[in-house]
Structures are given as structure tokens and as C-alpha cells.
């Protein structure tokens, strides 16, 4: 999705630069929406199994050098998605001053301890709302505004698109980032994870036991 340079239209919902928030939705080509995303594959494994081989794979998908984990902290948003299994980076993202946007299909031990939209921004497994999340906090991408010819001459410092950026968008992002960081310090500690492991081991032993009913806890 992030490497799609087509003119396929996608709905983008964003606030108008009016005193009272009013939202509008317009169809914007996917290639223009992707100007705010920086996502790529870092390695091609078994490219011969891809239809057309390596040339077709490189043509259809974006590839780039890997980015060290510490370099992520210079970005306002951090996108956390599943890989071959669950993502192991989420706790590190929470410990940063950035805002994690998380999508997963896995059940994780901490999920009942944390609040979406308070400690992080949730994202569905289809990623469809990623552009609207960005537009809600940071305003529509400049390329989308240029496409829609939506400029406001009275922009800050001569920037005719500045008025489209929500006034309190960064404040809301900082509030989520700080809440997530505090949660990581107080609840998402290694000792909290260690406390779950004995419970997991006991439950796994009960499930695997032939007399599992006898191993159940009864008051």
C-alpha cells in the first residue's frame, strides 16, 4: 500500500480551517497520500518465487536500507505492525517520545492493561484509516491540498497551507505520547511481564494435562 504510486482514489476526511471544526471528505489519489509514509522492504528473500522474479518484485514494491531502531525516535509517528509474528518493538516505541500507531491480529498479555487512544493510536489490520489518522492530527498532506487546490492565502509565515493543520493536533499527540511513556514506566516493565509467565506456564500445563479438570482452581 505504501509503495502504491497509482491514481486509485481513496477517501480522505479532514477538518476545514474554520473556527468551529467541520469535516469534509474528498477522494485523493493514493500516490499523493503516500507522500507522508516512509515504509519499505529491506530485503528480498526468495525473489525467484515471485511472479516475474526479482525485477517484477522491485517494480511492484519499494525497497530501502534498514533504519536503526534509535533513528525512529526523530519521527512524530511510529507505525508498529506485525511481521512474521507479533511485533516486539511496541514496548520500545512506547518508551520513546513519539506516538505509536499499532495494528496487530495477535492477543498480547498486556492488551487489557492499556487503553487505545490514551496510550497509543490503534490501527485496523487493513490499515485503511492510516491516512485519516494523519489528517486528523496533522492535517491533510500538502500534496493532497495541492491536488484539491485548497489553499488559504493567510497562512503563517507565507505558508498557504498552514491553516489546514489542526491547532491542537500536536498537543493531542504529545498527550498520547506522554501517557504511553508513563504507562511503559509503571505497567509495561520487565517485572510485569515476568509476573505473567508463571500464570502462563501453569495454564499451559493444565491444558496439556490429561486430567486437566482436576488441575482447575476451585474455591
Task: Compile the SSE list and pairings.
Layout: E1 9-15, E2 23-29, H1 30-33, H2 53-60, E3 77-80, H3 90-94, E4 99-102, E5 121-122, H4 130-138, H5 142-148, H6 169-186, H7 190-208, H8 212-215
Parallel strand pairs: 3-4, 4-5
Antiparallel strand pairs: 1-2
Describe this structure in words.
The longest helix has 19 residues, at 190-208. The chain folds into two domains: 9-188, no CATH class; 191-219, no CATH class. The chain is globular. It is built from eight helices and five strands. The strands form two sheets. A three-stranded parallel sheet has the order 3-4-5. A two-stranded antiparallel sheet has the order 1-2. With 219 residues, the protein is an alpha/beta fold. 34% of the residues lie in helices and 11% in strands. The mean pLDDT is 88.
Distance between the termini: 53 Å
| Rg for CA atoms | 22 Å
Anisotropy-based shape? globular
Give the total of beta strands.
5
How many domains, as an integer?
Answer: 2
Which class best fits the helix and strand makeup?
alpha/beta
What percentage of amino acids are in beta strands? 5-15%
How is the largest sheet built, in terms of strand order?
Answer: 3-4-5
> Secondary-structure element order, as H and E?
EEHHEHEEHHHHH
The largest pleated sheet is described as: 3 strands, parallel
Number of distinct helices: 8
What's the mean pLDDT score?
Answer: 88
The percent of residues in helical segments reads 25-40%
Q: Spans with pLDDT under 50 lasting ≥5 residues?
A: none
